[in-house]
Amino acid sequence: MALQESLNKFKKQQEKCQATLTSIAAKSGSSRAAQPQARPPAPAVKFSNDTERLQHINSIRKAPVGAQIKRVIDLLLETRQALTPEQINEACYVDINANKAVFDSLRNNPKVKYDGKRFSYKSKHELKDKNQLLVLIRKFPEGIAVIDLKDAYPTVMEDLQALKAAGQIWLLSNFDSQEDIAYPNDPRVPIKVDDDLKQLFRGIELPRDMLDIEKDLQKNGMKPATNTAKRRAMAEVHGIASKSKLKKKKHEISKRTKLTNAHLPELFQSLNVPDS
After folding, report:
1. How many CA atoms lie within 13 A of 76 on its CB side?
2. Looking at the DSSP assignment, which residues form a beta bridge with residue 180?
3. pLDDT digits (tens, 9 = 90+) for 13-54
4. I want to staple 118 with a disulfide (CB 3.0 to 4.6 A). Which of 8, 54, 82, 232 is the partner?
5. Which residues, 6 or more positions from 92, have their beta carbon under 8 angstroms from its beta carbon?
6. pTM of the predicted structure, to 2 decimals
7. Is there a contact between 138 and 103 (Cβ–Cβ < 8 Å)?
8. How far apart are CA 270 and CA 222, in angstroms?
9. Residue 198: CA count within 13 A, CB half-sphere
């Protein structure tokens, strides 16, 4: 019995020592965790990336009605698509549904087509390609302003130059308004010239100096294709000797003479053309 009691006491002492060691280890770990540790620097405070965008949207929506309408029309002209008010708001930040004045003005604008749901750009002449452009110009023998054509479709200006290069139209400038006018040049159309006009044409003697020719063109409302004064000034700067003055001798038209008015043959029928 005495031996069993001694064993029990020994076990209890061991358990007590184990509990004491466990407690010491726990306190040691908590003390190390409590020690201050080096922390990484806090990141710099940044404002939202949307702040600038929201300020831009707010400035657009507070702009005058005319400025907002121009913004929408520019979008419709660039995209050439029919857009809903929601799509317009997403693309250019003009909230049409929230601004009745903008909505009504846009709906009644001559440059805008509204089908009840979508807005689209409306050009003065609804054309799609070069062939339709040429057909339209031929309907205006007195000429049609290029400004009325330039928004018909995206590549209309390139097509005008192509038609001009092909000799199918003329592009002339109006001296008063400085606007280009497109004229048809259809060889199938017969042109009858009065005898009085023929006589007047043949009786006009052109000036010998290109400067005088350019001045006469300007007086009659036409824009010269050349700038002789500028060309001569550049020649003097670069040391190029000017050509001698033309002799005041009236030359007869020969078969080798290039006729710039070949599309008006009636003007030259009675001219004396010497044999070569």
Report:
1. 27
2. 173
3. 777 767 776 777 666 655 555 555 555 665 554 555 678 888
4. 82
5. 60, 71, 72, 74, 75
6. 0.50
7. no
8. 28
9. 13
Residues 6+ apart with CB under 8 A from 270: 198
Mean residue pLDDT of the chain comes to 79
Please choose, from the candidates 129, 153, 143, 210, the residue with its C-alpha nearest in 3D space to the C-alpha of residue 180: 143
Q: Which two tokens stand for residue 243?
A: 């050509």
Residues contacting 149, CB < 8 A, separation 6+: 124, 125, 127, 133, 136, 156, 160, 182
How far is 176 from 275, CA to CA, in rounded Å? 44
| pLDDT per residue as tens digits for the range 5-14 | 665 776 777 7
Q: Are 180 and 172 in contact (CB under 8 A)?
A: yes
Look up residue 250 and give its amino acid.
Answer: K
Strand order in 180-184's β-sheet?
144-145, 180-184, 169-173
Task: Collapse the DSSP code of 157 into the 3-class scheme (helix H, G, I; strand E, B; otherwise coil) and give the result.
Answer: helix
CB 110 within 8 A of CB 121: no
DSSP secondary structure letter of residue 238? T
Do 220 and 240 contact (CB within 8 A), yes or no? no
For the record, the structure tokens of 103 come out as 């909505």
